[in-house]
Amino acid sequence: MTDPHELELNLYIFILAGFLGYRIISRVPPLLHTPLMSATNALSGISLIGSLVVAGRMESPLSTILGCIAVACSSTNVVGGFLITDRMLSMFHTRKEGDRHARSAGNWAVLIGIVVLFFVAVAVAFAWKNKPEDISKGVLRYLYIASAVLFVLGLQGLTSPRWARQGMILAGLGMLVAIIGTLFNHEIKTWGYVWITLGMVVGGAFGASLGLTIPMTAVPQRTAFSHSLGALAALMIGIAEYVLHLNPEHREGLSSLYMTPLGFEVIIGALTFTGSLMAAAKLQELLPGAPMTYKGQNLISGLVLGCIVIGFIVLIFAPSTSFLFFLIVIMALAFGCLLVIPIGAADMPVVIALLNSYAGLADAAMGFVLLNRIQIITGSLDGTSGFLLSLLMCRAMNRSAMNVLFGAFGKPVEKTAKDTEPKGTVRSIMPEELAVMFEGARQVIIVPGYGMAVAQAQHAIGDLAKLLAKRGVEVKFAIHPVAGRMPGHMNVLLAEANIPYDQLYEMEQINPYFAEADIALVVGANDVTNPAARNDKSSPLYGMPILEVDRAHSIIVMKRSMRPGFAGVDNDLYYNPKCMMLFGDAKESLNKLFTALKA
């Protein structure tokens, strides 16, 4: 990229796509935040477009191999992302409509056919009017326009559970159109299709296995892992393009104007790759969930980041300084680890959303490097989605993004003499006693948390809710924005248990109902129900909006032990005279309760 006017036009496209993405994504309900992240993760596989070209050009053995790796990584995200998104969306239904909204797919298919046929007709007309060497460029241009329209319509579908699945059909078709069009790119050589096929088969098979087999409880770590693959694809393509332009034949293209987006691509791609791997390892409990801190950590991280920025500025003015380029890549890889390791599991919803944003920005930067506007548009949409979700998660915790990234929230709190004093009496209850309480209940609110996911108790909760509903009990589910380790994760798990989404209430909706509830049943949620966030100014949770379960007539908490939550502080709710603890594995306790109720 050496034309300033081309850069200016692409910047306009990037900014306008970001504003469009903000307008659409801000309308996506919290119910669909997890499918949204999975869908944008699939769309981030648009890096496949650039990867196909780099692998197929066969400019050098290194660029071909790196391009093939990028094809495999991107194919994994595309196939796996769309499959798991469809699995999630197929589970959402209301009590009245069930799965009937899927019947409207025929109308959408007609609309899809009209849109695609229109752009294909335009592409054919253009090809007919122009010289043969311009045919592939003309076809690609209009197919990419069709893809962009379909991607936007796909995200628009996520603004309603009723149309979300059909929207993803549109987005998937958009990706297919873009991929097929790219395969006709005149730059791809005949033998290049061998490398392309190899990468797509390997990546597609791996993505399909992830998308079809991974349990819904493992969606957060799968999403983080997919972010790492998308970032790795951007990094591979960035390195391949830089090495290519070091050759005397292409060195004239290695200008400061070209180096700017290329530097952004490799820096963001590198730190997102390692950061996402660290996040996935924490979520999979391969690394401790508590913050891993050390003396002077913020100073060291700041120095590494400062060296990256200074090195990047120098590289812009001296693009051919190859040792500095690879040093920046190494430092960016290290910074990704330094960024995520000190962050506790409590902040994973914010971290995953931020990594989603970074992966989108890396894709957009690749689009600037390869002059591919569909990548710029899709990367901007993806980046906007992650950034907006991270802001929503920070607001839900009443914390700033800087505090999340550098505050080590979740680090074990040292106990003082005051903290060790008894706060009150903790009462326990048995499943048989709880069954008697449910006999007289008329309104029950169930509060799921990450403990429910760990115990895989969502189906047991679904069975309990159905039994209570048959007995005339009104059952509602209270969902906190940061319950679990991914935005909207609780909604997906409950949908998997066939709980209609019109029984799921967000925090602002449900809080007024707690005072009317006979029983508030808390299953594995801790910090999001702690009254200290409202009453104790010395608590690290103070100011965080919570689910006001302490206002219910009776409170039942299912928990393995009295161990504190991610914030490392005791939950004052457990000492409330209205609260009783049902200790044990949530799934086993619910099954015993279900048996007692039926008896």
Secondary-structure map:
Blueprint: H1 4-25, H2 33-43, H3 47-57, H4 61-89, H5 105-129, H6 135-157, H7 164-183, H8 192-213, H9 219-246, H10 256-283, H11 297-317, H12 322-340, H13 348-370, H14 373-397, H15 401-406, H16 417-420, H17 431-439, E1 443-448, H18 450-455, H19 458-470, E2 474-479, H20 489-496, E3 504-506, H21 507-510, E4 519-523, H22 532-535, E5 554-559, E6 579-583, H23 586-598
Parallel strand pairs: 1-2, 1-4, 2-3, 4-5, 5-6
Helix pairs in contact: 1-14, 2-4, 2-14, 3-4, 3-7, 3-8, 3-9, 4-7, 4-8, 4-9, 5-6, 6-7, 6-14, 9-10, 9-13, 10-11, 10-12, 10-13, 11-12, 13-14, 17-23, 19-23
Give a verbal description of the structure.
- By secondary structure, this protein is mainly alpha-helical.
- It has helices at 4-25, 33-43, 47-57, 61-89, 105-129, 135-157, 164-183, 192-213, 219-246, 256-283, 297-317, 322-340, 348-370, 373-397, 401-406, 417-420, 431-439, 450-455, 458-470, 489-496, 507-510, 532-535, 586-598; strands at residues 443-448, 474-479, 504-506, 519-523, 554-559, 579-583.
- Helix 10 packs antiparallel against helix 13.
